[in-house]
Design brief:
3-stranded antiparallel β-sheet, alpha+beta, two-stranded antiparallel ribbon, 5 strands, Hypothetical Cytosolic Protein, Chain: A, 32% helix, 87 residues
Length: 87
């Protein structure tokens, strides 16, 4: 029986390669909006973060999402990410 390939992505903070479903995708849309992509399929420039509170806090502290997406990420987005993880 053929095994199904699991798509792997790299967390921009911890640099770990993890299965796509274990990560959160933050996306800059073609219109310039920055959103959290629950579907992992929306159009735009995406960055992946591990579903870990320490990783989200480090991303906020180092502003790594700002560099990767090329635009300032609002602080409210980090609050949404932390809320998603803690649910």
């Amino acid at each position: 029986m053929k095994t199904k390939k699991i798509p792997m992505r790299r967390c921009i903070v911890s640099q770990e390669r993890l299965p796509k479903q274990e990560l959160i995708r933050v996306l800059k849309t073609p219109e310039g909006n920055i959103i959290i992509d629950d579907t992992h399929k929306a159009n735009g420039r995406g960055a992946y973060l591990k579903k870990d509170e320490a990783v989200i806090k480090k991303a906020f502290k180092t502003k790594v999402l700002d560099r990767v997406l090329g635009e300032a990420v609002p602080d409210s987005l980090y609050d949404e990410l932390l809320k998603m993880i803690n649910e």
